[in-house]
Write a structure and sequence with these properties.
The protein has one domain. Helix 1 crosses helix 3 and helix 6 runs antiparallel to helix 13. The protein is built from 13 helices and no strands. The chain is mainly α. It is globular. Helix content is 76%, strand content 0%.
């Protein structure tokens, strides 16, 4: 699941850039969500997953929706329009670093030494990936700051998802969170973008279909399943290969230039993933021979 998630989400950064170039970004995201929502519903019905949410859990579900989906989808899609796909992916996936900081600050987590090494490796990798981008980012600081803000809120949502006490299957949570987010995005595009609506061109329709089918119908449920069932640091760090794939695919597809720092960053990011995903060895015990 993690490999599929990495591939789908990594390739989506240049896809999103194509989708929002010359097209209203909130409308792009809204159309994608409306396409993905029936897929989630069909999966729930086929698998006979209970969809009921207890009345006392709706407030918690609303908060999870805000931190895991609404802020990210609104802010990130607007920022992607102003940034290259590679820069947007790199800034967005500072999320694992924020997740570790939230865990320590709010939830009293004690990080294992190898987790700290992984966070450090990921941070250096992100810095290397941004090596040639600082001048460009300085020209559009609001977009860079917006991506960092969205990443920090998403990181908080990851911590909250792991600790949620809502007694409902993860697929049911994903459906209702997506449904709420779709309504919010619809209201946002009607309110702020109505004068910019246009019939999507074929390339934009392709990007909408990719996002609807593969992001909201496939990748988002997998991510929230991982976020709910893995420790927050592990689930967050495990997706750090996505910005690498986003940067490489953006260079191949959209002509964004690569440098030696990108190769070094790939090595560091893989090391960061290994630091949290490899199992912890149990201490070796020496058998004790009982006295005769």
């Amino acid at each position: 699941m993690l490999a599929a998630l990495t591939l789908v989400w990594g390739l989506n950064w240049p896809v999103m850039k194509i989708g929002v170039t010359g097209f209203a970004p909130l409308a792009f995201r809204t159309l994608s969500m409306w396409l993905g929502l029936p897929i989630l519903l069909a999966v729930l019905l086929v698998r006979r997953v209970p969809m009921t949410i207890r009345r006392e859990d709706w407030r918690a579900l609303g908060l999870l929706t805000l931190t895991n989906m609404v802020v990210w989808h609104v802010v990130a899609i607007i920022a992607v329009q102003a940034l290259s796909s590679g820069r947007a992916a790199i800034l967005g996936y500072t999320m694992p670093i924020f997740s570790a900081l939230w865990g320590v600050a709010l939830f009293g987590e004690r990080l294992r030494p190898r987790y700290l090494l992984g966070i450090g490796a990921a941070a250096v990798g992100v810095a290397l990936l941004l090596w040639h981008e600082f001048d460009a980012l300085a020209g559009r600081p609001w977009a860079a700051i917006g991506m960092l803000f969205a990443a920090s809120v998403w990181a908080l949502g990851t911590q909250q998802m792991r600790r949620t006490r809502i007694e409902a299957p993860t697929l049911a949570l994903v459906f209702w969170m997506t449904a709420i987010s779709t309504v919010v995005m619809t209201v946002a595009t009607v309110t702020f973008e109505r004068d910019r609506w246009a019939v999507p061109e074929p390339a934009v329709w392709g990007a909408i279909a990719y996002n609807g089918l593969l992001i909201f119908g496939f990748a988002q449920p997998i991510w929230l399943f991982l976020a709910r069932n893995l420790p927050p640091v592990a689930s967050s760090m495990s997706v750090m290969l996505i910005p690498v794939l986003g940067t490489v695919s953006g260079a191949w597809w959209l002509g964004e230039q690569l440098h030696w720092q990108d190769g070094a960053a790939i090595v560091l990011v893989i090391a960061a993933i290994a630091s949290v995903m490899l199992p912890v060895r149990a201490p070796r015990t020496v058998p004790v021979t009982p006295p005769p």
